[in-house]
Amino acid sequence: MFRSLGILSLIFLLSGESLLAAPAKKVRTRTQMQTTDEGLRAPTSSRTRSRSSRTKVTTKKVKTPRVYWHRGAGVTVWQEAVKATRPPESTDIRMQFQGIQARLSYHRPFTRSNWRLAYLGDATFGLVKGKGTAPTIDDGLKGHMWLQVNVTPSLIFRTSRISEVAFGIPLTARYIDWRLEKGSNLTMDKGFSFSTGMTAIYANRLSSTMTLTFSLTHQYLWKANIWAFGLEQRF
Amino acid sequence: MPLAYWIFSFLIFGSTSAWAYPQFIGYKYASCLTCHFNGQGNGPLNDYGRALWAGEIAGRMFAFGRSDEKLGEASGFLGSKQMPWWVRPGFKTRYLAYQLNPPGGKTDFIIMQAEANAAFFLDKDQKYAFVTSFGYAPVPRRYNNKPGAKPDTWISREHYFRWQTTQDLWTYIGMTDRVYGIRHANHEAYSRKKTSIAQNDQTHGVILHYIKPEWEFTFHAFLGNLLQDADLQFKGFSLLYEKEVMQAWRLGFTALTGSNQYLKSNRYGFVNRFGMGFGSALMLEAGILEDTPKGIAGKRGYYIYTEAIQRLTRGYHLFVVAQSWKDVLQGDRPDEFKTGFGFLMFPMGRVEFRIELESKQQLTSTTDTPKDSWALLSQLHLSL
Predict the structure, then answer these.
(1) C-alpha distances out from residue B357 to A34, A54, A99, B102, B203, Å
(2) pLDDT tens, B119-129?
(3) Would you say B234 and B256 are in contact if contact means Cβ atoms under 8 Å apart?
(4) CB under 8 Å to B182, separation ≥6 — which residues?
(5) What SS3 string covers B300-360?
(6) Distance (Å, rounded) from C-alpha B255 to C-alpha A169?
(7) C-alpha distances in Å from residue B54, one per residue of A6, A84, A171, B24, B78
(8) Rounded to whole angstroms, how far apart are CA atoms B334 and A130?
(9) Which comes out higher in pLDDT, residue B180 or B151?
(10) Are residues B237 and B265 in contact, defined by beta-carbon separation less than 8 angstroms?
C-alpha cells in the first residue's frame, strides 16, 4: 500500500507544476463550492457533496495559455570535410566551423506530462577555416563566412525540477561565402547545402527564466558532429 | 570482447568509493569530511560515508526488500558484522576500458588500481587516526619505451596521521594528495592534469584544515614525494578556501606555489560548487597556470573545468562536462577543448560504474585544423 502511495505521489509530483512549466499552462476547471445554509461551511469532498442536498456546485473553466517561448544565444564549433577541386585533382579538406548562434523556440507542453513539444529555430553565422594536405591542393583557407538556419522539431522531457533532456531532428540549410583568389583554379563544395540529422540537448535551469543548454548534433549529410553551448531565457 | 565487457560491466558488483565526489553538494553534503577520513575527499570512507552511500545515494539493486537503514547497517567491511573500534579496513580496485575514435577504434583495458587500505584509531572518538593504503598502480605509458628503471608498480598513495586538534581544526601529517581546486574523480581533466594534481602527484606534508559550518579553509605545506629522487621533490604550499553563499552553494579560491630543481609553478583558481534540486550540481573551476622551467622564460596559461550532473533516479546520474586549456596565453597557441557527457551509476551499495563519451577539439588561429578525437571511456570500481 505504501509503495502504491509512493508511486502515486511520484506521478503526482512529476506531473505537477514545476518551475519550467510555470506559470500555469494547463487547462483547468475550478469548482466553486457554495452552500445555501446560513453561515460558513468548509469545502467538502465530492462524496460528501453528493450526500448534501444543501450544497450547490458551480463550475467555471479557467483556460490558461499553454505555450511559451524561449530566446537565447550560444556558440557552436565542429569539423567537417569539404571537397576541394583543382582539376584534375579533388580531395577533402578538413574544415573547422566556429559560430555564434541565436535561437527562438516555441514550446508546447502536453497536459499533465513531463513531455513537451518544441520547435527550435536557430540562425547561426561564423567563420570557417582549413588547410589542404594533398600535394596539389595544399591551400590554406581562412575567414570565410557562413550562415546557417535550421528548424528542429524536438521532444523535451523534464528529468527534474531544474533539468531537461531533449531529442530533435534538425533541418538545416547553410550558405558558405567562399571568397577564393582569382586564378587559384580552386572550387569548394557545399557553397549552399542542406542536411538533417539528430540532436540531443541537455538543459540545466539556472533560475526561473534562465537555462543553460548543451547540445550535440550529428548531421548525417554533412557527416559532422556539432557541439553547441547556449543560454536561453523564457519569455 | 568490447561488447562483452560493456555487458559484463553492467552486471558486476562492487565498490564502496575511493573517489571524492564534490558534486554530492547536490545531496546537501558540502564537506568531504562528512564521508571521508581525508577531509579533502578521496581515500577510504568512514562509517557514516559507507552507510550514506548504501542507504541514500546508491541504487537498490539486489536490496531484496531491505530498508535503507538495513542497507546502511550492512555497508561495513564485513557487512553487518561490527568491526573492532580501532580499525576500518577496505579493498578497492578500478578498471578502465577506453576506445579511441569509436566505433572501430582500438580498445584498451587497464587495471588502474588494486589496493588495500585501512584506518587505525587510537581512541573511540576517532580523534587520532592513522590512514594508509598500499597496492598496485600501473606504470604510466610514457615509460613504456623508455630505457632504464621503471617506476614501482606497488605503491602507497597515501599514509598519514590525522589529528582532530580542536573542535574545528583537523591536522594531517603524511602523504596525501596536494590540496588545490575541486578534487573530483576525473584525474585526466585539465583542472587536475595540467595543475599537477593528478592521480600520482601525492606529496608528503602537513595539512591544516579548519572547518566551520559556513566556510572551510585548508592550508597545505608540502615537501614533495620523499620517495622520489631529491631533485624531483616538489616543495611548496597551497591553500583552498570555500564559503557557503547559501545552502548547497560554495564559492571560493585556491592557490598553489612550489618548485623543484627544474621547475617553479604557481596556480591560482576560482572554485564554485552549486547544488540544485536533489542530487544535481553544477561545478566550475577556472584558473591560471604559471610554469617557469629553470633557465627558460616562464609561460602562463589557463584552464577551465565545468560539470553539470543530474540525478535521473536513485543511483543513476547523467553528467555533462566542458573543459578548456591553453598552455600559453598567446594568440598563436591553440585552445584545447574537451566536451563530453556520460552516466555515473551506483546501482547498489558497493558498485560504481561510469561511462563517458568525450570529444577533444583544438581551436587555432592559423589554418591548421588538428583532427577532433573521440574517446569512449568506462570505469568500474569495486571495493569492500
Answers:
(1) 60, 66, 23, 9, 32
(2) 999 999 999 99
(3) no
(4) B22, B191, B271, B273, B283, B285, B305
(5) EEEEEEEEEEEEEECCEEEEEEEEEEECCCCCCCCEEEEEEEEEEECCCCCEEEEEEEEEE
(6) 45
(7) 20, 58, 46, 14, 14
(8) 14
(9) B180
(10) no
What was the pLDDT predicted at A60?
Answer: 65
Mutate which of A129, A142, A206 to test chain B, going by most B C-beta atoms within 10 A? A129
How do residues B47-92 score in pLDDT, each as one tens digit?
A: 999 999 889 999 988 888 899 999 999 989 988 898 999 999 999 8
Question: Rounded CA gap, A227 and A124, in Å?
Answer: 13
| pLDDT band at A92; cut points 50, 70, 90 | very high
Statement: residue A100 has pLDDT above 90: yes
DSSP symbol at B201: -
Whole-Å CA distances, A7 to A14, A47, B15, B366: 10, 24, 29, 57
Looking up cell 527534474 gives A160
Q: What is the DSSP letter of B53?
A: I
pTM of the full predicted structure? 0.82
Query: Nearest CA to CA, how far is A71 from chain B (Å)?
Result: 22
For residues A141 and B326, give the distance between their C-alpha atoms in angstroms, rounded to a whole number: 24
Q: What secondary structure does DSSP assign to B226-286, as a single string? A: TTS-GGG--EEEEEEEEEEEETTEEEEEEEEEEE-SSEEEEEEEEEEEEEETTTEEEEEEE
Rounded distance, CA B304 to CA B88, Å?
Answer: 37
Say whether B369 and A159 touch across the interface (CB within 8 A). no
Residue A75 main-chain phi, psi, to 5 deg = -125, 155
How many C-beta atoms lie closer than 10 Å to residue A110's C-beta? Answer: 13
Q: Using alpha carbons only, what angle is made at residue B54 by residues B172 and B185, rounded to the nearest 5 degrees?
A: 50
Nearest to B197 by CA among B137, B134, B256, B242: B256
Q: Other C-beta atoms within 10 Å of B179: how many? A: 26
Contact assignment for B280 to A225 by CB distance below 8 Å = no
Interface list for A 94-153 with B (CB within 8 A): 94-96, 98, 129-131, 140-142
Nearest chain B residue (CA) to A227: B339
Contact B132, B156 (CB under 8 A): yes
Q: Find the mean pLDDT for residues B139-168.
A: 82
Work out the minimum CA distance from B277 to partner chain A, whole angstroms.
Answer: 7
What's A180's DSSP letter? P
